[in-house]
User: Fold these one by one.
Assistant:
Number 1:
Amino acid sequence: MNKEEFEEILKSLNIPVNEGIQNDKDTNVYPRIVFWEYGWEPITASGTEYDTNVIYQVSFFSKKPRHEKLIQLKNELKKKKITPYIEHEYIQKDKYFHSFFPIEVRENIGVS
């Protein structure tokens, strides 16, 4: 899956999605997604239009466990044959659920 396909899946959920940092206006909106890259793995095969697998963390915030939008996201990824291990935690202080997982996305980031 390339980054455009990944972003289309996230947008199809019709909830706030931000890359990199949380948008201040969405801080108390549930559900919402924030994702950011935290690793690059070079693709060494020749003849590919992408040079890097970029690893993103996807964080899903909601007020209830097994939120239907999280299930929808899981199902949309499964259609692409992507089945991430999704972890969950409850943030007692702020009373919300945080579900998160890594995902690899093919990109051409121009690193030589």
Note: The chain is about 20% helix and 40% strand.
Number 2:
Amino acid sequence: MGRIILLVFISVAVSLALETQAVAQSGDVLVANIVLGDVGDGKYFQSSIQLVNLADIPSEATIHCFSNDGTLTPAFNLDSTVLPPKQVIELFTSGPGAFRECWCRIRPNPGDRIEVSSRISLYEPSTAVPWPLTSAMTASVRIPGSPQAPKWDVPVSLVRVAQCVLDASALSVVNPSETAAEVDLALDWHRSPNNAVQYGPVHLTIAPRSRIARSLTALFPEIAPKPELYPLPTRAQEQGVLTVTANLPVVVSGLEVSSPKIVYSSMLAIPES
């Protein structure tokens, strides 16, 4: 369920009236993963962004969020905020409601610097929490905000027992620009320290202001566990480095998704200048 929830994609035309709001700038900080709304059985996602102003003067930031297809989609109840000096503000999406995925752009005033992180939380029905609460948070992950870069290196992994995947990386790539981004993904993969294989490149075209989210095994099905390779129920971890190269600056973010109990862990994503 958790993997499917994070990998929902739709395509809708973007109004020309929104284009001036979406132009990327070098001082922007992007949050690549915002998830909110119902996922069935009383469960729902809520996300937040934490804004930190370390300066001795107030700083104003505008906040615009876009769905996977690039459509402007407000996720918070405001589109700008003023941060007092040396303070932290955290903004939350709504709780239950229609399920949505999006990415957000935080733009400070020219010359200002704001540190940003996001948080995704999964809530489930509970009778163990005090009234008037009816849901308890069962999973949560905080992800640092990201700059833009044309090339990224991402350490990725897959944990399995025989052909059953217990833990795998999932990747988000955001194109904040006004033109389509051409993206190539190449994987240096190690089934063991002395067994290295290269896969790819896998080519993706990401529309303007759009986001693509895929699991590692969806991007590279060759690494999925195969019965003929893993006949015995032994636990093993395979890992490697995924290199993302684009013709435009993009933002790359990732999560480790563990099962059968869904747990998310933030992944390291390293931009290259």
Note: The chain has a mean pLDDT of 84.
Number 3:
Amino acid sequence: MTDETIVQTNVEVTEEQEIEQSTEIDVLRAQVAEYEELKAQLAEQEATQKAELFAQKVEQSGVKDFDKLRPFLDAAKLEGDALDELLGVLQGMKSKQNPIGTATNGGSGEKTAQQIVLADAKAIAKRTGSIEDIAAFSGLKQKIRQFGGQR
């Protein structure tokens, strides 16, 4: 063998090694791309599961119109105790509707002791119709007016 043949053989061996290495690199790149794709799919599935769990907890807590609030919240940050705390705050913020017929001017809507006693006396006076009961009701009404009652 001449030097020229040895050099040519070495060049052929080097080219073959480069081809093998490039195919191995291509295979590894394909595997990395597949791995990244699977990783992205897994992250998407986990996010979907978290969103579904989030929606279920909100629905179970009884908060209405939560979809309007959702764009302002990050479901990934609201996990466990943070979510429960948020739902507790939202439940506390629910507007309490006054029953029909209650005071709307800041009064409690509950009858005072004077009003209850007066209502009882009025009911007794109407039921019996006796002059004594009517007089007792009238006297009680005057006393309440005299000492700061509303009637």
Note: The mean pLDDT is 77.
